[in-house]
Amino acid sequence: MADNQLTAQVVFATITGNNEAVADNIIAILKDQGVQVEKSEISQTEPEELAKYDLAFLVPYTYDEGSLPDEGLDYFDDLADVSLSNLTYGIAGSGDTFYEGYYCLALDQFDEQMQKAGAKRAADLVRINLYPGKKDIEKLKELVNQSVQLAKKRQ
Predict the structure, then answer these.
(1) Which residue, of 4, 7, 97, 134, has the greatest Cβ tally within 10 A?
(2) H or E segment at 10?
(3) Stated pTM of the model
(4) Contact 49, 115 (CB under 8 A)
(5) How sure is the predictor about 65, in pLDDT bands with cuts at 50, 70 and 90?
(6) Torsion, Cα of 111, 45, 96, 17 (10° steps)
(7) Domain ranges of the chain
(8) Superfamily of domain 2-154
(9) What's the 3-state SS for 24-65?
(10) Residue 151, CA distances (Å) to 25, 57, 73, 120, 136 in order
């Protein structure tokens, strides 16, 4: 890694495009901080790839009444079997507050899987109602900032 430049992978799942917008915001913030970033759709990604990076951001949606994204089920299952003890991660995602008790539950489930894999969460989960607005982007900046700072300490 040249000049200790941090590397990151942003893995997202989306139906409506909202989570891709969340992922794109995270990527822009990371690039502003000089982080080398790869963007990946969850069904096209293997959890083992995360081991190559300093940072990971998972951006899953929650379907219906708390269900994980169908296209991300294999990724989710395989995640617990990967050793990611050198990885710092953050989780953000779009949901719909209409679903109240089920709002963004997939974020918590992916968080548990990342912890089982030994990865270190840098900041609170960022839950976004539908499409990310200005306040959401500020929360994403905080998520990225905290994650980058922790990853630098762990290098």
Answers:
(1) 7
(2) strand 7-12
(3) 0.95
(4) no
(5) confident
(6) 150
(7) 2-154
(8) Flavodoxin domain (3.40.50.360)
(9) HHHHHHHHHCCCEEEEEEHHHCCHHHHHHCCEEEEECCCECC
(10) 19, 12, 27, 9, 22
